[in-house]
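Structure, all two chains, one model.
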Amino acid sequence: MDAATVLIQAMNGIQYGLLLFLVASGLTLIFGIMGVINIAHGSFYMIGAYLAWSLMGWVGSFWIGLIVGVTVALLLGLVLEWLFIRFLYDRDHLQQVLVTYGLILIFSELRSMIWGDDVHSVPIPELLSGSIQLTENLAYPIYRLWLSGVCIVIAILMFLGIQHTRLGMMIRAGESDREMTKSLGINIGLVYRFIFALGVSLAAFSGMISAPISSVFPGMGSQVLIVSFVVVVIGGLGSIKGAMIAALLVGLIDTFGKVIHLDIFGVNIFPEMSGMSIFALMALILMLRPQGLFGREH
Amino acid sequence: MTDALVNVTDLHSHYGLSHVLHGVSLDIKRGETVALMGRNGMGKTTLIKCLMGLVPATSGSIRFRGQDIKSLATHVLARRGIAYVPEGRGIFKNLSVKENLLLAARPGFEGRMEWTYDRVLDSFPRLKERLIYGGQQLSGGEQQMLSIGRALLTNPDLLILDEATEGLAPLIAQDIWSIIGIVKRSGISTLIVDKNFKALSKISNRSVVMVKGGVVFDDSPSKLIEQPKELKSWLGI
């Protein structure tokens, strides 16, 4: 590979990693703060992508679609927390998985009823449709750069929000001692509802902004869910910082795994076996550091 | 209406299958300091957690300022004016000392703001030197000061302290007792659980002794000291 290809692939890897972070951060927040394993998280990503597609056809503007879609996702999150999730905080993980698996089936069926089972594509918004010329014969799409930039801004806002706002203090306090947080007059139930809705919106937003660079298809939720879980496990359950590092690692390894050619004793390790690479990384991390890179020991 | 702040009447509570509180009745007047005594497992912490809404009461009534509060959520009780310093202090380890305090700061019932961030720091100079420390970096005594300071910042009418000086060196414990004295003089009602019978009796207006989930004694501390035989069987002293 020449330097330009490496650069392009590195940018693709980072962009994929940042997108994974947006999805995985919601997952790890909901687990770390509320103790809920939410396997329906990928469904919100899928819903986001389908919303982007249908709103695009409806209102004709990617941007208005984005605003409407995030609002819809936020409301969906608030309602779901109130209807189902709030009953799961004191339950064990098996019950959480069963309820959220039920949600996957419901959303998958609803998607099939509302949007059908076809594969769709969303055009890149005109404003960001060009490319930037990197070298004489290599260009990089502006949309991908914009997407990375948006993810970075959201990540920074999240870090600042958790470290420096009153809501962030409440979130950290609730994580440390739920009873004591309530005893200081803080309505922790309301904080949880907001966090859950925020996680749902982040997942849906990721689905929406990734729609123009990948296709919109029925199984996209479970696909992203599995990779997000790999990210959360590698980074350490509940750690936002860990999710960021792990997402970038996974993004880069997955991307480079598909372009590197490596044969060992005549067996094609890459790219033939690249699909396994991130799981191999997870297995390695689990062996060396079972709590993940930034997870706390239990 | 009497000048009672808290009226607990015939309170029962269950922990799973075990019946922990067997009809507890207890009044706390405004400005009164009440010592809650009894051996381990007699129901003191359960009673406190019922008052705080952390453990459900199965029957009986809890009134606060004359209003029934038995089925209210914990955060609502805290906003009505009950503050809690739990056994083990309940410090948020992942928050700094300053954040622990700021998180709690709020006007009390009817908007009173007697305890402000600055006043708490003036009353607990040790905390002032530790503001940017994480909650887990404090010594036991400092943690207890933080827990009390934090509770005061909610501007409560009733402060509940469970195991106020447990695990503290005698000198540090003395500091805590003098802080409780400050709280008492500021007119806040307190309900205190502690193993130090002497110090607790000295500071309280009333002693309440619990045995097997019921109140067996409720009178002045001096009357309790006059009953050495009962003291031995109730408290082992």
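Strands of chain A lie at 131-135, 138-141, 262-264, 267-270.
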